[in-house]
Amino acid sequence: MALDLHEIEQKWQKKWETDKVYKFDEQSKKPPFTIDTPPPTVSGIMHMGHAFAFSQQDFIARYKRMRGFEVFHPMGFDNNGLATALMVEKKLKIRQNDYSREEFVKLVLKHTVGQEKAMEESFRGIGLSFDWDLLYRTIDELAQKTAQYSFLDLHKHERVYQKEAPTMWCPSCGTAVAQAELEDKEVESTFNDIVFKTKDGKEIVIATTRPELLSSCVAVFVHPTDKRYEKLVGQKLKVPLFDIWVPVIKDPRADPEKGTGIVMCCTFGDQTDMEWYMAHSLPMVISIDQHGRMTEQAEKYKGMKIKEARKAIIEDLKEQGLLKEQKPIKHSVNVHERCKTEMEILHTRQWFVKYLELKDEFIVKADAIRWIPKHMKARYDNWVKGLQWDWCISRQRYYGIPFPVWYCKKCHEVAVADEKQLPVNPLKDKPLGKCKCGSNEFEPETDVLDTWFTSSLTPQINGHWAEKTKLFEKIFPMDLRPQGHDIIALWAFNTIVKSLFHQGKMPWKNIMVNGWALDSKGKKMSKSLGNVIAPKEMIDKYSADVLRYWAGLPTIGEDIPFQEKEMVAGKKFLTKLFNATRFVDGASKDLGKVDVKKLKLWPEDKWMLSRLNNLEQGATKAMDKYEFSKVLNPTRNFFWLEFADYYIEMVKHRIYGEENESKKAAQYVLRKVMQDTLLLLAPFVPHITEEIAQTMFKDVFKEKSVHLEKWPEGNKEKVDAKLEETALLAISIIAAIRKDKSGQGRPLNTPVKVATIKVVEPEKVEEWAETIKQTMKIEDIKFEKAEALSIELKF
Ligand SMILES: [Zn+2]
Ligand SMILES: [Zn+2]
To answer: How far is the CA of 101 from the centre of ligand 1 (A)?
Structure first.
């Protein structure tokens, strides 16, 4: 029977599903272990990062199940919000504004259905042990209800407010965004030395990368200690091209080393402009609109796009002799992480979650969570420390979850939905009561909620918190949040914020932060670099278990370059596992019932059992600490380098020999090691272990799946360190004899007349004499005391 991994995998995936092996039983008496699964964005494709991270999450889920927990392991898809809408816009080459809101939402939803199906198939294909009946989506009714319920709860506790304020704005997506959605991007730009003039016509040169903002210039700043401009402070300067006069103000935020040391402040060019605007109560002048076009304020440049205006203004400055010099520079700008467009700061009306004053609390309270690996907590802390804005949660988009909010047409008071109405669509539904002013006429809020406003509620969605179920009490706080390090600021942080506001506690006990799957050279995989390796390709070529094996090799949190040679090695290992089991099965099939205490064990038997218990103890400790690579690597090495390479060879003579107690003991140990090895490997390579368990070990594995068997914890009492040490010596003697034989060109099973073993402490290995003799076909064996190990063979 040849080993066909693909056939095995499909067979067991189907069987697990029909047998509901991973079904979560709410009524179970077992303690629950609950996992807050990250919902991948519905893009139609499972990429290598998914395969990598989800496999690691699955190792833990399977392990906990074997440890006797009732594992709550839902799968989710993120089909809500901007990411989804942008994906559909890009795929179909459309823009939301080409459609009515209703049409656009329908289009996006329709498109995501097919994408989700394709993804579901890929995720099933790597054998993840989800209870698919718990599947959730971030746009479905339950998520809508939960998000709106969360809003109502925050509203009740005055944690949300609405304000006209400067906000981060993406001109391409046409919406406000939150600080967490910004990315730094290094861009090439030009420093333009532009001439401002004093009242008496003196030229003052100011360097700027954004001359298109000249019409919204409200002040210029110099550093308080900058002698060059001391006399200017308090005077007014004329802005070039426009009839605008602005004051010169001193402020330590002006960098004397940058440009000419004197800098213009426009409302708003960047974050510092905002700070100046607040600190010095400057007027607000708006020259860019919500779609990234110049406003009336920009006079003749009105209607131009930002970059067009920049070009035109530079031309005009040149013509009028107001441009002194241009220097190319590279600097870092804020871009929108979704579309990479440079951010603007616009003054708009938005909804915010108020939390800036709680930064310290967010840091301290999150210490109650175990961060795996530990250093990821520092990334979280740094993010929280750097927070400068309250959380802007409104998006000026069509697709997303609506605010449960209306405004009174008469007095403009906010009216929120009643809990009973959820999920509510204010565009169609009406508030249940009248406004305080007596009016019955309302205007709906047309903005939608930030997608993270909903994604930050995954524990609450999965526990049906908004429906006030018992399930929520059972699963919250959740045991484990697995997620990537790139979204600590977005997902981990926002989820912590929400749970703290709603439940007054942390959402999980543990957070396991996975690293990235990189290309073979350690670069991030990306379409533009052409270095993307699709998991499907690797599964087709090697199998899902082999891909999972690869995901089990690195330490948690570590980025790992994808090396195909590891897939080759993984496949080799699985083949070895399969072949060795078939040997063991054949050699021990007739064992029957044994009384373990009465077995006559040889030193190698005791050694194997000691090693096995040692390994199991270490594996249990490591898995409890989420250090799965400290299980997979040692188990593979034990199985291959000790059990297969030595133990099996040592006991062959007993297996093929007479029926007696010695044979029984060997058979017992062979079977025991094989059986426990399967259990240790089951979380990592679930298909092949199931196949072996169900076809060859049905006598010992009584559950319907190996994944419902008990994890072998190992027994300290059964570890014999001394024996393991002498075993190493016996092994090195056998290795030396093997080397000698093959060095002389003789087959390994060539009989030896006399073997003289010179060794430092002969008394230590004498009890292994019979084992060594039988393994290496030696007639007579002699031990002599010597300074170092050496052997002499006579044939
Ligand atoms: Zn954008
Ligand atoms: Zn009113």
So the answer is: 19
Topology match between the domains 190-328 and 564-719: no
* CATH 3.50.50.60 for the 31-152+453-514 domain, yes or no: no
Per-residue model confidence as pLDDT tens digits over 708-718: 999 999 999 99
Neighbours of 702 (CB within 10 A): 8
Cα–ligand 2 centroid distance for 403 (angstroms): 19
Task: Report cis status (omega within 30 of 0) of the bond before 535.
Answer: no
Domain limits, the chain: 31-152+453-514, 190-328, 564-719, 736-794
Tell me which ligand sits closest to the C-alpha of residue 340. 1
Q: What is the DSSP letter of 645?
A: I
Residues 736, 789: contact at Cβ < 8 Å?
Answer: yes
Average pLDDT for residues 50-62, to the nearest whole number? Answer: 97
Q: At what angle do helices 48-66 and 603-624 cross, to 10 degrees?
A: 110
How far is Cα 154 from Cα 581, in angstroms, rounded to an integer? Answer: 58
CA atoms within 13 A on the CB side of 678: 31
Cα(159) to centroid of ligand 2, in Å? 22
Ligand in closest contact with the CA of 82: 1
Give the distance (Å) from ligand 2 centre to CA of residue 406: 11
Burial (CB < 10 A; 0-12, 13-18, 19+), residue 582, is middle
Q: Give the pLDDT band of residue 578 (cuts 50, 70, 90).
A: very high
Q: Which ligand gives the minimal distance to the CA of 291?
A: 1
pLDDT for the residue 725: 94
Which residues have CB under 8 Å from 359's CB, separation 6+?
384, 385, 387
From the CA of 447, how far away is ligand 2's center (Å)?
20
Strand, coil or helix: what is 376? helix
Compute, in angstroms, the gap from residue 338 CA to the centroid of ligand 1: 6
Residue in 80, 78, 87, 82 with CA at minimum distance from that of residue 40: 78
Q: pLDDT tens for residues 236-264?
A: 999 999 999 999 999 999 999 988 999 99
Find the ligand nearest to 431 CA: 2
Whole-number pLDDT of residue 239: 96
Say how many Å lie between the CA of residue 433 and the centre of ligand 2. 11
CATH architecture of 564-719: Orthogonal Bundle (1.10)
CATH class of 190-328: alpha beta
Distance (Å) from CA 444 to ligand 2 centroid? 13
Using pLDDT thresholds of 50, 70 and 90, give the confidence band for residue 597: confident
Tally: H helices and E strands in the chain: 24, 28
Return the pLDDT at 1: 56
Q: Tell how strand 344-353 and strand 160-170 pair up.
A: antiparallel
- Which ligand lies nearest to the CA atom of residue 413 in the structure? 2
Q: Residue 41 has what DSSP assignment?
A: B
Which bound ligand lies closest to the C-alpha atom of 168?
A: 1
**Residue 117 in marked binding region:** no
CA 268–ligand 1 middle distance (angstroms): 18
Q: What are phi and psi of 548, to 5 degrees?
A: -65, -40
Tell me the CA–centroid distance for residue 440 and ligand 1, in Å.
Answer: 37
Mean pLDDT of 192-209: 94
